[in-house]
Design brief:
mainly alpha, 8 helices, globular
Length: about 240
Amino acid sequence: MDRTTTPDPATSPPDPYAIALLRGGDRAAVTVAVLALHLRGAVDAGRPGTVRRTGPRAAGAVRHPLEKAVRTGLYRPAGPRELPGRAVVRRALAGMRDELVAARLLRTLPPGRTRAARRILADLREHRPMPAERAGPHGLVEEEVLLTVALHGGRALTALLPRFARDSGLTGPGALADEGLFPFGRGGGVRAVAFHGDDTGRAADGGGSGGGAHGGHHHGGFHGGHDFGGGCGGGGFD
């Protein structure tokens, strides 16, 4: 199934995609989807500062509606600023925001996170601190990698998968295609960004209209070893 029932935040916390959206907005949620697809071999860094598909979709590579939208949106490589604005990704993000409003984790007036959302983020951060620099994903199952990046953004991504973070433009200066340096680097669609945040969660709570929390994610182990090159600092696709 592409979509599951939104869990009650009082009994079940949102998934990493919704956590990222609550912390840092649309681009943070898309970062987690890109990372999930990369861990399963469905996307990789393309030309500098872009993400691309790696070939035909393998069975089980896509496990969440936002992942499906991101992979569909990569009909051609995209930089981190462009991808959230592609139509299929915008629609998936709007659906997530709608579900987060329904779950009372986002509000529309004034736009921003609710008290319940702030409490969830604080509780999760307390039990899942920032990883050490260049920690790598050793010993972490996929869901733990995704949740850590959802909570801490680009700094966590750089610590866990520095080479992919750098080459894909998800952190650091990156995003060269979005500066018009490569053909097809810029999209023509209207970009819809719900709100902007930072890696610490001290985001400006500009809201949107809610997003979903989806269950049923894979908890299998992640086997690293291919992505421990030196990273570069934050920014980019948080």
